[in-house]
Amino acid sequence: MAGLTLLLFLPALRFPFLNWDDKPNLILNPHFRGFALENLRWMFTTHYRGPYQPLSWLSFACDHAAWGMNPAGYHLTNILLHAFNAALALLIARRFFDRPLAIFCALFFALHPLRVESVAWVTERRDVLSGFFFLLAFYGYVRSGRTGPWIMTGFLLALLSKATAVGLLWALIAFDLTALKRPLRVSLVGKWPLALMGLLLACVNLRGFATGDLAVGHYGILERILIASHGAAFYAAKTVWPAHLSPYYLLPVDLLTIAPALALHAAAAAAATLILFRLRRRWPAALVAWICYLLILAPVSGLAQNGQQLAADRYSYLSCLPLAALAAGLLGEVTRRIGKTAGLSAATLIVLALCGLTLRQVAIWRDDVALWSRAVALSADNFLAQSNLATELFTRGDDAGALVHYEAALRLSPRDAQGHLNVGVIYERRGQSALARAHYNSVLAIEPGNLAARNNLAVLLLKDGLWDQAAVELERLLRQSPDFAQARQNLDRLRRLRVKK
């Protein structure tokens, strides 16, 4: 089980850090490097880039102590954690299924292409780490049936890795009601310490969300319910048919542009809930699994938004565990009807298909260009994907390729100052001064205080012999930033040229 999981994700050991979040989180961030008191204080108090995840930062500190800044070591930790999670999923599944179905359940979870983002992207350490403590605590509860110190410790560690692990509370209650046949009141009374921990960590994280890319209050409650309902159908559909997986599903500012799709997915989620409720007497476990899925998904469904994504494959890591159990249960029902041999063949085909899809999905995360090329191929009107791909190509010196995607990005978001700046640089390299000046001026119209754009414009005007205009820009630049040495040098150079003339 764990060996097959390792084998499938081993190609990620060759992957570099991505500029997308790995760069600010790890490459440019010195705070997690070391166990000095100052570093530990930062890890346990920061809301850096939104989430509160002190144990995830601590795990990165351990990686740094062992590997330095070699990305292979960080990838290895993610892969090992996911392999451990696969083994824990098997141990838990054995409590509910016979051995063949338990193996299928664990493999369905571990080898599904939806897991790739959480494993192959170093930044998403929080998913596999919180998943480890989540599954460890759940396994302990399955064995003991008691909320003892071990369970509470595991729950706390999961929350400190990623607060969305609060879904463990719902999983434990569901286990009480179904497997242990405990009354709801009895189950709830025994879970109050977990509920208190979950509430405290949720409050801490909501504070961090306010510092993220998209504040919690950006959308109204009805819009958030619509987004969350869409997510319920989206992840279930991608679990059944994992096609067209993207690193970024863009959430538009104006939801009216995707309202029909959101409404359709919300209706599908409601219909699935109603159908399973009607079938509760014939197949009660299916309804329980579906409700667990909805509850575990809730914290990342869009009810409390952090970022500009409509959905993300990584959000399925914990939430789709019940769907894996549901798939195993469905396979068991089918096997009873068509026979063990046919059922085993069906399970084998499904696992092989998942392996092939996951290998292909892992390759997409091999570098930033491959990643954003895939996102653009899936959605050409995704501004972030176009802009990020353009920036990667620009960084690699592929001006022609970068220009194509920058132009697409600027059509989607004309007020992208950095895009205009880089396009201006490309046109300047090509000797197309008029176009370069136009883009530098666009930057300054959007961000009058952009020093790089004003300096580039001044230098270009100087090259083109437009000395008076260059002097105006250089003087403005020095008023903004008196210590800008290059601007002062260029202004002195301009004065010498005027004297010679």
Detailed description of the structure:
This protein is mainly alpha-helical. Helix content is 71%, strand content 1%. Strands 1-2 form a two-stranded antiparallel ribbon. Helix 10 runs antiparallel to helix 15 (284-297). The protein is elongated, with a radius of gyration of 26 Å.
Précis, in short:
The chain has 501 residues and is mostly helical. It contains 26 helices and 2 strands. It has a two-stranded antiparallel ribbon.
> Which whole number gives the mean pLDDT?
89
Number of H/I helices: 26
Number of E strands: 2
Distance separating the two termini: 79 Å
List its traits.
501 residues; two-stranded antiparallel ribbon; 71% helix; mainly alpha
Give the helices and strands, then pairings.
Layout: H1 2-9, H2 22-27, H3 37-45, H4 54-67, H5 71-93, H6 99-110, H7 116-120, H8 125-144, H9 149-161, H10 168-178, H11 184-189, H12 192-209, H13 221-240, E1 249-250, H14 259-278, H15 284-297, E2 309-311, H16 316-319, H17 321-338, H18 340-364, H19 368-378, H20 383-395, H21 399-412, H22 417-429, H23 433-446, H24 451-463, H25 467-480, H26 485-500
Antiparallel strand pairs: 1-2
